[in-house]
Structures are given as C-alpha cells and as structure tokens.
C-alpha cells in the first residue's frame, strides 16, 4: 500500500549522489522482491557467494567504509576482530534502533527498499560466518517491522534464506526483534542485553566487545542499517572503486538528515566530504527560513557538540593546516571531529537566531534524563540534574551559580560511565554552555522565582535548592 508520506518521483537534488537511497522516492518503485530483482537485486549476493568469505571482508576493508551508526568505526576492521580460532556460533545484528534525535534515514531504507537491507545483511553474514542474523528494530517503527517480515518471507520463498542459499553451502536465517522503546537499546551492548531478553543495561568494554563477547557471549557483529546496505554497493563496485567515492579516509556516500530552521529540511545522500556545511544549508536545504540568520548547528545527532556560527576552526588540508568558519566545514567524519564535534549518525540540526539556547539545551536534557538506563550514578543522577537546572533557569528561578554547576555536572559524567551515553548527555551541556555563555547567564537572575511556569518545573527547582 502506498504511504502518503513518500513522494514518488521526487527528484534528488543535483548535488546528491544517491546510492543507498537510489530507490527511495523512485517513481514506479515498490518494496516487493519482484521489483527489487527486476532491478538486478541479489546479484551482489550471488557474486559474494562465489568468493571466499575472507575475500569479501577484504573488499570491505579496501573500501574504507566507516560505520554510519554513530562512531564511524571502519566496518571491515570491526569484522576482523572476530577471533580466528573461534568455535562458537557467530551472530550478525542489524541495528535498526535509529533513536538518535535528528536522525531519520534508516526508516526510509526499511520502508522503501527492505531487500537492499536484506541483501546487505546476507553478504555481511556470509563474510563474518554468521548463520543467524537479527534485525533489532525500534518499537516506534511498527510498519517497518511488518515490511521487513514481509520481505523476509519473500526472500525465504525465493530460497534466499535458510539452507543452501542460491545453491551454495551458505545458510542463514534473519529474524526481526522489536524493541520496547528505549534509546539505550541503540547502544550495541544494551541492544544485545535486550535481545537476550533482559533489561538493556550496557556492558562494560573491555571485556565485552561484541565481536569477541557479544550475543550469548558469542562473537557478534553489530552494524547500522545504512552501513550494511553499503556492503552491497562495495560488492557491486569493488572495494577500491568504492573508496574513490568521497574523500580519502572518508569514503563512499552517506545520508544526511537535516532538520530545524531551514527552508527545505529532509534527507540528502552525498559523497562524504564533498560538500560543506554551508553548501548543505544554502544549496540543498534552500537556506535559512525567511529573514533569519544561522545561529548554530548540531552536526551529527543530538549527542554531537554544538557548533556556533561565527566561530573558526583549524583543520588539516593535506600537509597544511587552514582556518575555516562553520559554513566551510566539509561534511565528513574527520573534519567535523577536527572542529570539535562529530559526524555521528548524520542528523544535522540547524538553528536560527530565534532560538533560545537554554531552551534548546533543556529540550535535549529532558530527552537524556528520560532515557538514561540508570545503571551508573553519574549518568542517572547527572542527566536529571542537568535537566532540572535548565528547567529552573527557564522558569525564572535560575541562580548565578547555575552555569558553573551545569558544567561541573557535565564534566563529572563524561568519561565516568559504563557506556558512551555518558558523553552523549554531557557533550550538549558542555558545548552549549561554553559556546553561548551569555544566553545561560541571562537565565540566572532569579527574576521570576516562585513563578515557575508549570508544576513539574516548580517541583524540580525546589528539589535542587540554591
Ligand atoms: C547511547 C547510544 C545510542 C546509540 N544508538 C544507535 C542507534 O540508534 N542506531 C545505530 O545504528 N547505532 C547506535 N549507536 C551506536 C552503536 O552502539 C554501534 O556503534 C553501531 O550500531 C555500530 O554500527 P556501525 O559500525 O555500522 O555504525 C548508539 C550508541 C550509543 C552510545
Ligand atoms: S552511561 Fe547511562 S545509559 Fe550508559 S550504562 Fe551508564 S547509566 Fe546506563
């Protein structure tokens, strides 16, 4: 059934390079296996099955593909961490939790091109030696889960799943596991705990690196939806040719999800690093909203540190260093890291000069306070304290020491927790306060004490004391 939210026939922007999203919004396209196969689908699986698994991994290594789920870790290198002398089952998990605020790409792949994902999973499972793969899909994607179930049934009927796939000795089953609606289930070890039927408390690394001690303490490869789709294209092009897309160390294409105060928010697939932040905002997104100026950008999902318009950064350009402004930042992993933030999950949140940064941070803090799994004290308590402080700043009860307290709470979370959620919730506070100190100071005059805007905020302020 056609989904009215998709615009069939919508043309990609001329500066896009659509590979993963080739079929998204494509006229006459549907999610069936018949359409996919008519378009050459499952050809790359056939190609991979004629190769040795290690040779497939070598192609992925040669491609330079880096994970699109957040950390940007090289996919082939991760696969290589499975112990060579392993005699336990190996699992592959497709992370379809897509819960990072600002990120909305994986859902379109699942909805409109599910067989591309299944083909990527099958090739990857073959390469790493997994006979069972799971797709962990977030609770909030019920239609996505149904679409994937249907695609799996189609693939099974076509003998692309089960034993003797395409007449070879390769066997593989893919199962869907629906989450129960928690952001922390996107963190790979929390996801694994959840898949085992437990509360999703992340595991400490080391020793629990999934490639060594993952699902049921067996070697497990966890990859993002988009990363797994790229594997199919690496097979189609060959690793070396794929590596020519994008820029060295930042190869291939990636999907950027732009939201916020631009004329045309949406998803755009670009060659990594071939476009700057300014080009993304001005050309692809049609610029800022009418009469508004750029104030700040969160470049890689809500966990990424905020960048302020007008600031400058020093990045490497070959052997030299150069100073650039926010609009000049190439949209790639290394440049965004050099500018003090990260490419993360590709969720670019653009803010204009109408935004109150204390309000924005409060919005983010509210999310993290709600989503902390509660396992470690700094994160469980600190995320809530940061929310409560920004709550009371906004309700007029802020005190001068709040700015310092906020930063101190953030500093005492980052680096002191079991999983990277600690950094994810501390970095917004640390960066927003460092970059917009005047906005936070503005909310510390206690001008409206006693006139809290809502009962929840009033309780929170009272609980904090001075
Ligand atoms: C708090 C937290 C939430 C995460 N959420 C997601 C998510 O929703 N989807 C995802 O693919 N990766 C998420 N990640 C990253 C995963 O832990 C893991 O690195 C990723 O799935 C690996 O895939 P990749 O190498 O293909 O990027 C999250 C990480 C953290 C710390
Ligand atoms: S850092 Fe936060 S989310 Fe991660 S394990 Fe600790 S309490 Fe849970």
Can you tell me about this structure?
- 38% of the residues lie in helices and 14% in strands.
- The chain is built from 18 helices and 13 strands.
- It has helices at 33-38, 43-49, 53-63, 75-79, 106-112, 114-128, 142-157, 188-195, 225-237, 239-242, 277-284, 333-338, 357-371, 377-394, 402-411, 421-435, 437-441, 455-464; strands spanning 91-96, 132-137, 173-178, 220-224, 246-247, 250-251, 253-260, 266-271, 294-298, 307-308, 312-317, 320-325, 347-352.
- The longest helix has 18 residues, at 377-394.
- It binds flavin mononucleotide (FMN) and iron/sulfur cluster.
Question: What's this, in brief?
Answer:
The protein has three domains: 33-244, NADH-ubiquinone oxidoreductase 51kDa subunit (Rossmann fold), CATH 3.40.50; 252-352, Ubiquitin-like (UB roll) (Roll); 357-464, NADH-ubiquinone oxidoreductase 51kDa subunit, iron-sulphur binding domain (de novo design (two linked rop proteins), Up-down Bundle). The chain contains 18 helices and 13 strands.
């Amino acid at each position: 059934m056609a989904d009215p939210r998709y615009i069939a026939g919508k043309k990609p922007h001329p500066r896009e390079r659509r590979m993963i999203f080739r079929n998204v919004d494509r006229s006459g396209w549907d999610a069936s296996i018949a359409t996919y196969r008519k378009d050459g689908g499952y050809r790359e699986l056939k190609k991979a099955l004629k190769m040795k698994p290690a040779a497939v991994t070598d192609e992925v290594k040669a491609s330079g593909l880096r994970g699109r789920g957040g950390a940007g870790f090289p996919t082939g290198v991760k696969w290589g961490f499975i112990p060579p002398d392993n005699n336990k089952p190996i699992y592959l998990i497709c992370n379809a939790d897509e819960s990072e605020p600002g990120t909305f790409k994986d859902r379109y792949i699942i909805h409109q091109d599910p067989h591309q994902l299944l083909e990527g999973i099958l090739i990857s499972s073959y390469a790493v030696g997994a006979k069972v793969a799971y797709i962990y899909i977030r609770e909030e994607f019920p239609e996505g889960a149904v679409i994937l179930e249907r695609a799996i049934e189609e693939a099974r009927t076509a003998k692309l799943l089960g034993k003797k796939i395409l007449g070879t000795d390769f066997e593989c089953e893919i199962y869907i596991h629906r989450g129960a609606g928690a952001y922390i289930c996107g963190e790979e070890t929390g996801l694994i705990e959840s898949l085992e039927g437990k509360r999703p408390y992340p595991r400490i690394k080391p020793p629990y690196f999934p490639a060594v001690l993952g699902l049921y303490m067996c070697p497990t490869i966890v990859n993002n939806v988009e990363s797994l789709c790229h594997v199919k294209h690496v097979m189609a092009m060959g690793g070396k040719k794929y590596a020519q897309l994008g820029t060295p160390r930042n190869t291939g294409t990636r999907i950027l999800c732009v939201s916020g105060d631009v004329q045309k928010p949406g998803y755009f697939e670009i060659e990594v690093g071939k476009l700057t932040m300014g080009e993304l905002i001005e050309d692809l997104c049609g610029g800022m909203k009418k009469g508004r100026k750029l104030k700040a950008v969160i470049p890689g999902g809500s966990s990424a540190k905020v960048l302020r318009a007008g600031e400058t950064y020093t990045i490497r350009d070959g052997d030299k260093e150069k100073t650039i402004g926010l609009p000049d930042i190439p949209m790639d992993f290394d440049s965004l890291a050099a500018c003090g933030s990260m490419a993360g999950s590709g969720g670019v949140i653009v803010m204009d000069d109408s935004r109150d940064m204390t309000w924005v941070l409060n919005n983010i803090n509210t999310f993290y306070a709600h989503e902390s799994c509660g396992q470690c004290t700094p994160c469980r308590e600190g995320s809530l304290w940061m929310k409560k402080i920004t709550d009371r700043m906004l309700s007029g009860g802020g005190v001068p020491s709040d700015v310092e307290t906020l930063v101190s709470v953030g500093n005492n979370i980052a680096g002191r927790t079991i999983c990277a959620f600690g950094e994810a919730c501390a970095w917004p506070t640390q960066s927003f306060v460092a970059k917009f100190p005047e906005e936070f100071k503005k909310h510390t005059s206690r001008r409206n004490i006693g006139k809290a805007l809502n009962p929840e905020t009033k309780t929170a302020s009272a609980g904090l004391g001075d």
